[in-house]
Design a protein that fits this description.
heterodimer, A: about 280 residues, mainly alpha, MetI-like fold, B: alpha/beta, Rossmann fold, eight-stranded mixed β-sheet, four-stranded antiparallel β-sheet, about 30% helix
Chain lengths: ~280, ~325
C-alpha cells in the first residue's frame, strides 16, 4: 500500500484515488465550514443588523440574496447561520452516535436479558414519531439549543444501537473473536478492541447521512419556535420568519432553504463517498 | 493415566434446533492426550469434529461430560479453571484471514498476547514478537502488515505465531490447512511437525485430509456422528483399519497410481442427520457388514490389535478398568 503511494510522482494529486462523491461532499462541507469560521470577515453585514430603509429588498448587488422585513441582509444571515446549523449537525449526531454505539455493542455482545431489555427500549422510542417525541422532550425541558441536543441524544441513539447490535451479533461468531476468546482476553478487550473497530464503518457512514436529518429537524424545531430563538440567525428560523412574505418576498425563505439543501447534499455525498471508500476495505 | 495432559470424559454437545428438536453434535466422546502427543481427529463433514474441539477449549457449548486439563477440571466452568485453560492452550483456525482481526497488524496481534498474559517484560516485547515470527518462518519486517496485505500461508503462520505466543501445552488445530494451497499445506504441516518436536506441544489436529493426518499424528480418532468409532496409533489405524467406517474412509484415499483407479466400492449415501441418530450403531444404515444386533445395541469399545473399536463385528469387550468409564447411552 505504502509503496503504491510512494511510487506516484509528487505533483500528481492524490485525491484522484478517492470516489467523486467523497470529493464533492468534502468540498461542499469544507466550504460551509470555512464560511462559518470566517463569517465575521466574509459576511457583508452583521447577522442582526437592521436597516429599515432597505427592508424587503429583492436580490441586488448590495444585497445578493435580498433583505428581510427588518432590512437584514439575507446572505449575511445565512453565512452566520451556518455556524449554528453546523454545530447542530455535529453535536446532534455525536451524542446519539456515542450512546447508540455503546448500548448496541453491549446489547449485541452480552445477549440474553441485556439485549432483550435494550431492544425493548429501542422499540419504545421507535414507537413514537420522531419529531413528536423530540417536541415533547424539548417542551418538558425549555426551548433552546441545549434542550434540542438532549432530546436528540435521547431519541437519536436508537438507530445506532440497532445498527451496531446487528453487526456485533454477526462479528461475535467470527473466527477472530473466537481466537480472542481462546487467548483469554477480557470481554471489554474483545468488544472494544476486536469487535467494535470492525463494525464501526457502517455507523460512521450512517452518521454522515444522519447529520442531514439532524440539521433538518433542528431547522424544523427552530421553525416551530422551540429551538434557536430569534433574532439569532439560523436557517430554520429564517424560513419561519419569511413565510408571511412568501408571496411578496420569496427570497427570504428561498435562500435559507437552498442553504439547507446544499448542506444536506454535501453531507449525503460525503456519506456516500465515505461508504464507497471504506467499503472497499472490507 | 495420571500422566495425561487432557482427559475428555463422555463429552456431549447438544443444540436445540427449534420445535424441540435436538441436534446431537457430539455424543459421548472419551479420550486421553499425553503431553507432546498429536491426535488426529478425522471424519466426514458434520460429524462433530469442530464442535468437539471448541467444546474442549470451552469456546463452544458443552452439554454434559467432563474435560480435565493438566489435572484441573475445566468442564464445570469456574473462572480459575478456564483462566488456566486459556493460559496453556491455543487454537489455530481453518480460514487464516478470518482468524486474524482485520484491523490489527499481525505484529500487534502477537504483541497483544504477550501483553495480556505478561509473558515477557515490556521492554522485551518487540524482540519476542520478532522471535516468534522467525520461529514460524515469517520475516519480522512483516509485523506492520495487516492480514489483508498477506497471503493465506503467511496469515496462517501469523495465526500459529499468535498461538505460540501463549506458550501453550496444547494446541487445537481446526482444519488448519484445508483452506491453503497444497504446497503451502505442506509447509504448514512441516512447521507444525518441527514446532511440536521442539516445544513438546500436544496437538489435536482436526482434519478430513487423511494423508495429512498420517504424516503429522501419533494417534488417530475416527469420528462418526458425534462418536469416536475407532481410535489407535496412526500406523495401526491406517494399515489395518478395523471399523467398517474406517475401512471405507481408507479406501477413499486417492492413490497416485493410474493402475489403481478409483475406489471400487465407495461408501453409499449421506451420513444420517444428527437430528435423528439411528438406534444402535449410528453407522448401521450404511454399513456393508450390518448384523441384527447393530440395529439394537450401541457397540461398546473393544480393543483389537492396539486400537479401540466400537463395532459389534469384534468380540465383546471384557470387563476391565478401561471399560468402566464407558457408559451406555441408548
Amino acid at each position: 500500500m505504502s509503496t503504491a503511494i510512494a511510487s506516484r510522482p509528487g505533483w500528481l494529486p492524490r485525491f484522484s484515488k478517492h470516489p467523486l462523491p467523497l470529493l464533492l461532499g468534502a468540498g461542499i462541507i469544507g466550504t460551509i465550514v470555512l464560511l462559518a469560521i470566517l463569517a465575521p470577515v466574509v459576511a457583508p453585514y452583521g447577522p442582526i443588523a437592521q436597516n429599515l430603509e432597505v427592508k424587503l429588498q429583492p436580490p441586488s448587488v448590495d444585497h445578493l440574496f435580498g433583505t428581510d422585513n427588518f432590512g437584514r441582509d439575507i446572505l449575511s444571515r445565512i453565512i452566520w447561520g451556518a455556524r449554528i446549523d453546523l454545530q447542530m449537525g455535529i453535536i446532534g449526531v455525536f451524542f446519539p452516535f456515542l450512546i447508540g454505539t455503546t448500548v448496541g455493542a453491549i446489547a449485541g455482545y452480552a445477549g440474553r436479558a441485556v439485549d432483550a431489555v435494550a431492544m425493548r427500549v429501542v422499540d419504545i422510542v421507535l414507537a413514537f414519531p420522531f419529531l413528536v417525541l423530540m417536541l415533547a422532550i424539548i417542551a418538558i425541558l425549555k426551548p433552546g439549543l441545549t434542550s434540542f441536543y438532549i432530546a436528540m441524544a435521547l431519541v437519536g441513539w436508537v438507530s445506532y444501537a440497532r445498527l451496531i447490535r446487528a453487526q456485533v451479533l454477526v462479528a461475535k461468531s467470527a473466527d477472530y473473536v473466537t481466537a480472542a476468546r481462546s487467548l483469554g482476553y477480557s470481554h471489554l478487550r474483545i468488544l472494544f478492541r476486536h469487535i467494535l473497530p470492525n463494525v464501526l464503518t457502517n455507523s460512521i457512514v450512517f452518521s454522515m447521512s444522519d447529520v442531514v436529518l439532524v440539521v433538518l429537524s433542528g431547522a424544523a424545531i427552530s421553525y416551530l419556535g422551540l429551538g434557536v430563538q430569534p433574532p439569532t440567525a439560523e436557517w430554520g428560523i429564517m424560513i419561519a420568519e419569511g413565510q408571511n412574505f412568501i408571496t411578496t418576498a420569496w427570497w427570504i425563505t428561498a435562500f435559507p432553504g437552498l442553504a439547507i439543501v446544499v448542506m444536506a447534499l454535501g453531507f449525503s455525498m460525503l456519506a456516500d463517498g465515505l461508504g464507497e471508500k471504506l467499503g472497499v476495505r472490507e | 493415566m495420571s500422566d495425561s495432559l487432557l482427559r475428555v470424559d463422555d463429552l456431549q454437545v447438544h443444540f436445540l434446533a427449534g420445535k424441540g428438536k435436538l441436534v446431537r453434535a457430539v455424543n459421548g466422546v472419551t479420550f486421553d492426550l499425553k503431553p507432546g502427543e498429536t491426535l488426529g481427529l478425522v471424519g466426514e463433514s458434520g460429524c462433530g469434529k469442530s464442535t468437539l474441539g471448541r467444546a474442549i477449549l470451552k469456546l463452544g457449548p458443552l452439554t454434559a461430560g467432563r474435560v480435565s486439563f493438566d489435572g484441573i477440571d475445566v468442564g464445570t466452568g469456574d473462572h480459575a479453571g478456564i483462566a488456566q485453560l486459556r493460559r496453556e492452550t491455543a487454537m489455530i483456525f481453518q480460514d487464516p484471514y478470518n482468524a486474524l482481526n482485520p484491523r490489527l497488524s499481525i505484529g500487534s496481534a502477537i504483541e497483544e498476547v504477550l501483553r495480556v498474559h505478561r509473558k515477557v517484560p515490556p521492554e522485551r516485547i518487540k524482540a519476542r514478537v520478532a522471535e516468534l515470527m522467525q520461529l514460524v518462518g515469517l520475516a519480522p519486517a512483516l509485523a506492520g502488515r495487516r492480514p489483508s496485505a498477506l497471503s493465506g500461508g503467511q496469515c496462517q503462520r501469523a495465526g500459529i505465531a499468535r498461538a505460540l505466543a501463549v506458550e501453550p501445552k496444547l494446541i487445537i488445530a481446526d482444519e488448519c490447512v484445508a483452506a491453503l494451497d497444497v504446497s503451502i499445506q505442506a509447509q504448514i504441516i512441516n512447521l507444525l511437525i518441527e514446532l511440536k518436536a521442539r516445544m513438546n506441544l500436544a496437538l489435536i489436529f482436526i482434519a478430513h485430509d487423511l494423508g495429512v493426518v498420517r504424516r503429522l499424528c501419533d494417534r488417530v480418532a475416527v469420528m462418526y456422528l458425534g462418536r469416536i468409532v475407532e481410535e489407535g496409533a496412526t500406523e495401526d489405524v491406517f494399515d489395518a483399519p478395523k471399523h467398517p467406517y474406517t475401512k471405507a474412509l481408507m479406501r477413499a484415499i486417492p492413490e497416485i497410481d493410474p493402475d489403481c483407479g478409483l475406489p471400487a466400492d465407495p461408501l453409499g449415501g449421506e451420513p444420517p442427520s444428527p437430528l435423528d441418530i439411528p438406534k444402535g450403531c449410528a453407522f448401521h444404515p450404511r454399513c456393508p457388514d450390518v448384523m441384527p444386533i447393530c440395529r439394537e445395541a450401541l457397540p461398546q469399545n473393544r480393543f483389537v490389535g492396539g486400537c479401540a473399536v466400537a463395532c459389534h463385528l469384534y468380540e465383546d469387550p471384557t470387563t476391565n478398568s478401561e471399560q468402566e468409564r464407558e457408559r451406555i447411552h441408548a
